[in-house]
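INFO  loader      accepted 1 record
INFO  loader      residues=444
INFO  predictor   begin
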Amino acid sequence: MLPNTGKLAGCTLFITGASRGIGKAIALKAAKDGANIVIAAKTTQAHPKLPGTIYTAAEEIEAVGGKALPCVVDVRDEQQISDAVEKAVQKFGGIDVLVNNASAISLTNTLETPTKRVDLMMSVNTRGTYLTSKACIPYLKKSKIAHILNLSPPLNLNPIWFKQHCAYTIAKYGMSMCVLGMAEEFKGEIAVNALWPKTAIHTAAMDMLGGSGIESQCRKADIIADAAYSIFSKPKSFTGNFIIDENLLKEEGIKNFDVYAVKPGHPLLPDFFVDEYPEIVTKEVEKQQVRTWTSGIQKEKVLSSNQFPGKRSDAAPPAKDWKQYLQQPKLAAGAVEETFKILKTALSEDIVKATQAVYLFELCGEDGGTWYLDLKNNGGNAGSGQPSEPVDVVMTMTTSDFVKMFSGKLKPTMAFMSGKLKIKGNMALAIKLERLMTQMNSRL
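INFO  predictor   done
INFO  writer      dumping tokens
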């Protein structure tokens, strides 16, 4: 982990959404240097599922050596922002760093996103970032450090990041566009940058979104705090950058990223707006192997396993018989049916006991239709049509992606994050499916 250097001693950081999660992690990292932290958040009473208030955060900040000023701020309210900025200047004499961390999320498509939710995301993410920056800029201009850091993604215009949650993407990209514009507008006066995680970060909010068990696929918020600390230590000329946490920390000399993992060694969930798998970004892709299905319906580019030396065994292609099947073009037309036949033979009472879920697959494309995987009853079962027992998880995807998913070529988590897989039902049980595939592949 990145050590503290004392560089932020006496500096004042104004952090929105700092009562918990990533905002609080950044605050605590700076507080260890003896920084002043303005906790600009609206939580004054603990939420049943989201613990932490501006007051408990203040206690933690002061416990590690910082000074805290808790301020009730809803970033949708311009007056509350102005009042908090005035209080910060009166108490600490100025503002040196602004962290626009407050954000609202709804991973819903256009027809399923109520107008009220659209307004919330636009008001908190884009408008809130803009207004808070506007209020702090006059004081930031007087600082020797002068940094604005937005917790927002690189401007990746790949349509997959708009397809499933257009409103959320627009709202987050609005924060990033503030970086693009303000970095140029205040060049030489204020460094303005964006920071985004390469993998999912474990917070209480992530638990609510992903369900129980999601934390094993996440990193701790400490990685974002370390990356932010590195940015604050750079000169004002370091501006206009869209930074990925891991990439920056590698430049800082960090080599062991297991220290940031909630469960070291477990496969990590890539974050939104980052196209690559985690393994791909850390290794040079030498070539792509193109496989053509002789059915003539589709040609797919697939990543061959030998492209990634040292790649985790649980991400590798499955055993010999399964690979031989996938490489036989004559079976491509009935790939889904053959997949379920092989799955059925691989079931065991141990797998059923460990999973306890019934999965329904709604597949579109050739050889599609409705299929099920019963991993709750007796020794398990798999086949076409509806199962005899109630369904716990419904997964919708193309037949092509289904075969790739069960052959180890496409991780379920990546399929979900990229919009290739839609999930309804118990998310925790859906996450179990990825672990199950690793176990089953070793038996095939």
